[in-house]
Amino acid sequence: MARLELSGLSKTYGAVTTVRDVSLDVPDGEFLVLLGPSGCGKTTTLRMVAGFVDPSAGRVTLGGEDITHRPPWRRNTGMVFQNYALFPHMSVAENVAFGLEMRKVPKPEREQRALAALGLVRLSQYAARLPRQLSGGQQQRVALARALAIRPDVLLLDEPLSNLDAKLREEVRVEIRQLQKQLGLTAVMVTHDQEEALTMADRLVVMAEGAIRQVGSQQDLYERPADRFVAGFVGRSTFLQGRVAEPGVFQTEGGLRLACDPAARSGPAVMAVRPEAIHLHPGAEDNSLSGTVEFTSYLGPVLELHVRLSPTERVVLHMPNRGGTPAAGLGESVTIGWPRAAGMVFSEAA
Amino acid sequence: MSLGTQGHGTAAGLVTPATIFVVLTLLVPLALLFRYSLNAFVPGQFMVDALTLENYVKFFTDPFYTAVLWRTFRIALLVTVICLFVGFPLAYVLARTRSRYKNLLLIGVVLPLFVGNAVRAAGWMVAFGAKGVVNASLMGLGVIATPLDIMFTETAVIIGITAVNLPFMVLSLQSVIEGIDRSVEEAAFNLGAPPWRMIGRVLVPLAAPGIVAGCILTFILGMNAYATPVLIGGPRFQTMGPLVYGQFVEQNNWPFGGAIAFILMTATLLLTMASSLLLRRRRVAD
Ligand SMILES: Nc1ncnc2c1ncn2[C@@H]1O[C@H](COP(=O)(O)OP(=O)(O)OP(=O)(O)O)[C@@H](O)[C@H]1O
Ligand SMILES: [Mg+2]
């Protein structure tokens, strides 16, 4: 349990920089999630904290101590691996006690602490089993207990749920989050699953191509994405290419004129609109456009419509499902619109 | 059900040729050899039919022969230990490397096996003989005044057999280490194990099947080495393999040769079995 600080952390393999100038301050007890597409350097960042990758530049500070060049076995980080990485030749109890054994905790105490850690993940009754005699979800919970048993300064999780099926994933997700809160642990989790990231995090970090794109709460990322990449990566958006023609007016390539934030810089830009911000039959909205429904899809709580606005432009909108007959059928002409504030404009001027 | 019996029939059909081959080439000669070892040897008359333990008694009561057995055992054991300690790091690197040249490295390890024993021994002579490269350089540098006796010593034989056996050890270990997940090692480090504790507590236990297989293979090869002790040890250096051959070919004493062959085989078998039992016992006790 400690504050974790990364400053200017970079990693270069030969000519390729996989992590670029990453600086983060994770306060004590925070659950931070690193989110980003495959290959963006999330794992590399986490492994620099654990000590498996030596940073090319920058510093890692844990609990006020500089651990940048400390070997992994002298860092007191608790890592949970994607593939569990349990010791196959040791019982569940021995696995969980391993870290305490390395810390020379006397046998009776370490057995008791291992059992307590297993109790946290509700697996005490499996203490004597071998890892291969457990299901995937149970194995990952053992791995969690093993990491918790050493009372780590920071819990590191690298896609801990990606090998589990959907239902289990939800269970273990809740379990990890509850334990982290209950024990007041500082935790950093890596994932490329945005739902997982949004449901678990106190704060999120979106990475792309080795660099941080945005740090913030779920609401920050969703409602105020820093750039086009974040707008597309966190939640869905329809992107309309065009330019800010005059203050407060966005002109799409297909010729639509849309109201936008008057502060948007003029010049080439892209507008992103969330599907649920677009309404069918707009009232006194700032934008009102007519189009044709080209595609519908029933998603349960919402209905998804794809509406063509111009030969080259189509928007995706979600409307709440209120039952009964759908408000708009395939091929129908409709009027749609969204408020001025819902059109997020990102300047693309070089 | 009919499928099951059919499967059995096919399996039996598949192993029959191999079984016949083993029986004809291995078991029959061995049985004959054992029978000969109970015969008597009368100089001039070659082999006389008998049922006697005389040959075995002769071996175990003559200190010359027991010394040869002991020396052979000592050499095989030392070679095995050296192969294990040299081979393990090598196998580890081979198993873990992500280099594009991994296959080249592997070929490098088995390369010694491409060279016949005679050629290799000739190489050793060039390197270690009284006028060889090593002595010449050391004397040239003034490190030593008289050439070191490296050839025709037990040390030379041990080095020679080690060189031959090392690839077998490395290959046995490498295949097992490759099957051990790298993240398990990292988990150990993460939980506070420095490298030597990780090796002792995680890597070695998980590699145990490879270690046992490699050691057994190396030990058997060491006990039965023939060409290397003859070529590098010289004419007066005796181990069990050359001893058997000498009795058969030079002395024409088939009964005694047979007895020595059986003693060698039994000793190898017993020692191998004893060590694997011991290992298994220790692993169960853990
Ligand atoms: N040892 C290495 N040598 C060279 N390049 C590497 C090495 N390790 C990672 N990389 C590269 O660094 C980049 C980032 O890898 P990293 O594993 O951190 O990605 P990630 O964000 O965790 O992706 P994923 O979601 O697929 O796990 C990748 O392009 C990868 O190929
Ligand atoms: Mg990764």
UniProtKB/TrEMBL annotation, chain A:
Give the ABC transporter domain ranges: 4-234
Q: Which UniProt keywords apply?
A: ATP-binding, Nucleotide-binding, Transport
Q: Which organism is it from?
A: Teichococcus aerophilus
Q: What is this protein called?
A: ABC transporter ATP-binding protein
Task: List the Gene Ontology MF annotations in alphabetical order.
Answer: ATP binding
Regions crossing the membrane: none
Q: Name one Pfam family in it.
A: ABC_tran
TrEMBL record, chain B:
Q: Per its UniProt record, what SUPFAM superfamilies does this chain match? A: MetI-like
Keywords assigned: Cell membrane, Membrane, Transmembrane, Transmembrane helix, Transport
Subcellular localization is given as: Cell membrane
The highest taxon in the source lineage is Bacteria
Query: What parts of the sequence cross the membrane?
Result: 12-34, 73-95, 104-130, 150-173, 202-227, 256-279
Q: What's the chief localization of this chain?
A: membrane
Q: Which InterPro entries match?
A: MetI-like, MetI-like_sf
The answer to whether the entry has keyword ATP-binding is no
**Pfam families linked to this entry:** BPD_transp_1 (PF00528)
Question: Where does the ABC transmembrane type-1 domain start and stop, copy by copy?
Answer: 69-275
Q: What membrane topology does the annotation report for this chain?
A: Multi-pass membrane protein
Q: Could you tell me which PANTHER family the record lists for this protein?
A: ABC TRANSPORTER PERMEASE PROTEIN, INNER MEMBRANE ABC TRANSPORTER PERMEASE PROTEIN YDCU-RELATED-RELATED
Protein family (similarity comment): Belongs to the binding-protein-dependent transport system permease family. CysTW subfamily.
What is the name attached to this protein's record?
A: ABC transporter permease
